[in-house]
Write a structure and sequence with these properties.
The chain has 553 residues and is an alpha+beta fold. It has 22 helices and 13 strands.
Length: 553
């Protein structure tokens, strides 16, 4: 059993190397340690007339299958890691696949539900509504007449994805050792986060819980419809949801036919997301047009609950601090908040970061709310974060990307939509809640408890430090990258000294040799030997002088 698994893994390594090399990304093959599997072919480097690098990356991920397609889709949400052209291209990844033959679907249903398909459903369409790389959806009808949609996990996809995730983890470890940039951005940690997310999407019971949580949050909202989950026909590999019908939010003609007020619809879509983020602390993280259906009454039907995000109290507090800093136009406070939010894995020049943020504030100072595009403002801020090599927590990055997509969706419905005007009441309410005496008293109480705890622990901590000093076990951690420039200069200086010593030794040795050594025919060759030695010594001396003069410039 071990050898077939190893053979499959080697075959997959070879396929990854072939696809990446074939799309002109041979440099990536070397970074992740697959150069021994890469064919020597023209595709190792991009030639003239090739698609752009983002396009080639998207095409390679599509060719490598579902795991890599999902990786690209999640990376498209990480605006703190990738520039806009890569985000846009990866957002175009189509998660589609050839349909699974119905006999296989039938066997999965019977195995998972423990009953024949005609016993579980009154009617079941053999042709799928949609077929993706992870699962496919079929229309069906329950015995009570309820129309439902049944999503079934593709047979064998779990083992394939699990194998790919293990491979990705190994490749990430290799990349971290070989490439400083990969280590700086903690690609191993990113792969672990991605693995947790993808494993969650493979569990339809988790998606069912997400749908039920959204339904509970919008139970009293007459505008939003969330499909009911039918637990009797739901397992880890099957989920049965109420079928929502309506017009897609991208269907302009359908919206016009149903006389939908598009400016009001745009506002309700954005308000729905603001309610998720600021009231529920739990938001739908895939707001593309295909996941929304508008019925004849203008209600918003929401589907697909595989990708969700969370907003905890600390994230809300950080967002409030950031909003306060922006309102007060305080660049120093913005630096503090961003450094608290971002993961700075290397030294950040605070002064330059402050200058960049001040320029950003100046850019929007004199604009009215209607003139500010939320997506553009967020992208400007994320550009600064990328420039200073900061990495946001994954949930914060997902929140910002979702906000930009929600704004884009609302603007798609109504081009005159103003997101800042819709956002303002929520931020004002959160600020009031933060400044409420009860909230202030709670924070003071928490800070007091921590101060008391620290005061009680401080003597013990000092005693341990002094004990370690007394035993000679005190260690001080030093970040080596702080000394890289100094070590480089010292190395160059030592090299020059060694070169000078070698040059002087050569000249002295040549002079001594000519003075004491006189072999036969020496008089005939002495001049040529002396000239050659003089040229070599002079060349070494000139090179030494040139390096010193170049460094001084």
């Amino acid at each position: 059993m071990l050898f077939p698994r190893r053979t499959r893994r080697i075959r997959r390594y070879r396929e990854i190397a072939r696809v990446l090399a074939g799309h002109g990304m041979g440099f990536l093959v070397g970074i992740i340690g697959l150069e021994r599997f890469a064919p020597f072919r023209r595709g190792m480097t991009a030639g003239g007339g090739w698609p752009s690098q983002p396009e080639r990356l998207r095409q390679a991920l599509e060719e490598l299958g579902p795991t890599f397609v999902k990786l690209g889709q999640i990376l498209s949400t990480r605006a703190d890691l990738l520039p806009p052209e890569f985000q846009h291209e990866l957002s175009l990844l189509q998660d589609s696949a050839a349909p699974v033959p119905f006999p296989l679907i039938d066997s999965v249903l019977e195995e998972q539900l423990g009953m024949p398909i005609n016993q579980a459903f009154a009617q079941f369409d053999h042709e799928p509504l949609a077929s993706a790389s992870i699962g496919q959806a079929h229309a069906a009808k329950l015995h009570d007449g309820t129309d439902v949609v049944v999503k079934i996990l593709r047979p064998g996809v779990q083992s394939q994805i699990e194998e790919d995730l293990n491979i990705l983890y190994n490749l990430a470890q290799t990349a971290s050792r070989r490439w400083e940039v990969a280590n700086h951005y903690d690609v191993v940690g990113l792969v672990q986060e991605f693995s947790d997310t993808l494993r969650g999407e493979l569990d339809y019971l988790r998606e069912a819980r997400n749908a039920e949580r959204f339904a509970e949050g919008f139970a009293d909202d007459p505008v939003v419809r969330v499909p009911a989950v039918f637990r009797e026909t739901t397992t880890a590999q099957i989920i049965t949801l109420e079928r929502l019908r309506g017009t897609k939010v991208s269907d302009d003609e359908g919206l016009e036919t149903n006389q939908i007020d598009t400016p009001d619809l745009a506002d309700r879509i954005f308000q729905m997301y603001l309610k998720m983020i600021f009231s529920h602390g739990f938001f739908h993280a895939d707001p593309h047009a295909g996941n929304f259906f508008i019925d004849t009454q203008g209600r918003i039907g929401l589907i697909d609950f595989g990708m969700v995000g969370y907003v905890d109290q600390r994230m809300q507090d950080d967002l409030v601090r950031l909003v306060l800093a922006i309102v007060m136009e305080d660049a120093d406070r913005m630096v503090d908040v961003i450094l608290d939010l971002g993961v700075a894995r290397s030294r950040v020049d605070r002064a330059i970061l402050r200058q960049d943020l001040q320029r950003l504030l100046n850019k929007y100072t004199d604009r009215s709310l209607g003139e500010i595009a939320l997506g553009t403002a967020i992208e400007d801020g994320l550009m600064i974060i990328r420039r200073h090599n900061l990495q946001l927590p994954s949930n914060m990055a997902l929140l910002l990307k979702t906000g930009v997509m929600a704004e884009g969706l609302a603007a798609r419905v109504s081009p005159d939509f103003e997101p800042i005007s819709a956002l303002r009441p929520y931020t004002e309410q959160i600020l009031m809640n933060q400044l409420h005496p009860h909230a202030m008293a709670k924070r003071v109480g928490t800070a007091s408890f921590e101060a008391i705890h620290l005061g009680m622990e401080l003597p013990h901590m000092v005693r341990r430090i002094l004990s370690a000093v007394d035993r000679g076990q005190l260690e001080v951690g030093v970040r080596p990258e702080r000394f890289e420039s100094l070590m480089f200069r010292a190395e160059r200086m030592v090299n020059r000294v060694v070169l000078g010593i070698l040059t002087a030794s050569f000249i002295i040795g040549l002079a001594i040799l000519m003075a004491v050594y006189s072999p036969p025919l020496w008089d005939q060759w002495a001049g040529a030997f002396f000239g050659l030695g003089f040229i070599i010594a002079g060349g070494l001396g000139l090179y030494l002088a040139w390096t010193i003069l170049r460094s001084s410039r």
